[in-house]
Automatic annotation (TrEMBL):
Protein name, per record: Dipeptide ABC transporter ATP-binding protein
Bias kind Polar residues: ranges: 667-678
Top-level division of the source organism's lineage: Bacteria
Lineage: Bacteria, Pseudomonadati, Pseudomonadota, Alphaproteobacteria, Hyphomicrobiales
Membrane topology, record value: Peripheral membrane protein
Protein source organism: Mesorhizobium shangrilense
Amino acid sequence: MTSLLQVENLSLVYGADQVVRDLSFTIGRGESFGLVGESGSGKSSIANVIIGDLPKIATARGSIRYDGMDLLSASREQLRALRGRRIGFVQQDPGASLNPTMRIGRQLVEALEHGGAPVRGRSERAAEMLSRVGFDNPGAIMARYPHQISGGQQQRVMIAMALLPQPDLILLDEPTSGLDVTVEAAVIKLIAELRARFGTSLLFISHNLNLVAKACDRVGVLYAGDLVEEALAGSVFENPRHPYTQGLVKCLPGQSTILQPIRGHVPSPHERGPGCLFASRCGHHLASSCDAPFEAMALNQSHRVRCARLGDVPIFASQIGAPEVRAIDGPTAITIRGLRKSYPTSGGDHFVANDDIDLEIRQGEILGLVGESGSGKSTLAKIIAGFDVATSGTILIGDTDIAKLPVRKRSRLLLRQVQMVFQNPDSTLNPTHTIGWALGRAVRKLETEPSRRTDLAGRVRELLGLVALLPSLGGRKPKALSGGQRQRVAIARALAAQPRLLLADECVSALDVSVQAAIIELLQDVRARTGTAILFISHDLPLVRQISDRIVVLFRGKPMEVGSAAQVYSLPLHPYTEALLSADTHRPAEMKNAATDGLSNSLGGCPYAQRCGRAIGEICWTQAPPYQTVADGHQIYCHIPVHELLHLQKAEPALTSGIAKSLPRPGQTSEVPQWSST
């Protein structure tokens, strides 16, 4: 395989700080190369230096050759001719990359203009690409401005924009971090098709190790600017040899009954010496061998490891296993009955975000809530927290119904009962005040015991200790903390009220696997010590399996399947749950975002009917299914009897949603048998 990109002895310095040290790797034509590592490892800086987008204080030395051209010595005009046309770039923050003054369609067409595409058919090509990245209404999306679509939709637009000119090389910097597993699977499949058809090469930067293992041919593991291991994707994660790579794999859900975070932190540039930069966190560190410069060692032609004590590091032994099954039998923390939330739309119709939800969460229980974007997960959390109100139904905290009680009308006692941890702590922590001030304010506002409020400094130290942060961090401002530390502060602030229920809405989705494992460990520890119930919302299915006692699978506001984590994952009976798990594993039978025209809602049928690969005819579109009991605590919302679903899964596992398009709609004749729900 001939090389398209060759990086040799690259060093990158920001001012006086070296962030990348003597880095070398190659990417062949049509090859996908993954780059993984924690925040602060220099992954995004490498993408920026390749594209020629570095701040003035940055200096790059070494060589980056793209198709024979040295990018470090190329002129601005040469780089401008490459960007977008031959080198595509999908950045981590799409909101900062899309022009807020231009409609989506115009920006996509502009990408084709820059790529030299023929004038005729540009809009049609843009709409087709939007369809291929998961949009079922490309025309409507093209007419909108960036602020009128969600963050996940913006990310898909950026991916479509990078793919449109059919470049030779695409740099993907955390391209799927805000996407659902179904959309993620569709995007990865699309990129694979593009590679196969046009020979496109990829530099895939991500903290999602499972995704990189499936999407890439080779993987480089970056730590503090050093490439510590490089090998074929299967070898890196199945047979990791560097202690850091082994630590990353141990952080993955499903690798053991408990997550094992890497202790310590990535050293800042001024803390880095000439030897192994992982030494302070490594259990195999030996000063005489590790603290002096050394070269990487080649295990074979495709596997290189930078470790001075490689011969003394034990071979990695996988400990794959499911979490222990926990029986939660405490008192009820919150009871939800018949909850419905609808919003008026143009034409006098209503959009239903939550549809007749019945749930109970017990003290000390972690309830996982999964589903695609738009399934109503965050809407449910906002109603419980008081940021929105229900259209009908009840939410009982004790004897008080809070379903229609907005947060501004809740008493201090009720405010203490429910607290929320948001996805992005940067948007909830005041950047002008210290961490200690933020926690102290929460104590003053929410503590009801005067004796607790008098010793404010002691209470702040107690809260910092509860989330495993040093008391000295209380004097720092948010910008002086890492992303994981800021998220711990957000959790500490929520715990200041000693809540009955903690709402965790995608609170670890943007974190590295090691930090994510530490936060999950923290939440489980908090639950065990305080008895706080937790509603854990995430699109990361293995992570939800790891942390949850029970799981609710939501689709268009309706629970499709409810059961213990073990029941839902070992026996996913509802076709939607089955398709979600299929998409998560990226098996050939992935579920796609099919068009939804609202027919099932208008006729009172199953909301999933239009996308269901197992739909059995008119009954699915016209009659609401019953809840069937599979086992104690395990229910599904489906017309097909349990024994028939088991038979269908064995015969045709994980059918795609596209099959539903071939089934007759209401009013058409059907030869498909109609199962009884009894």
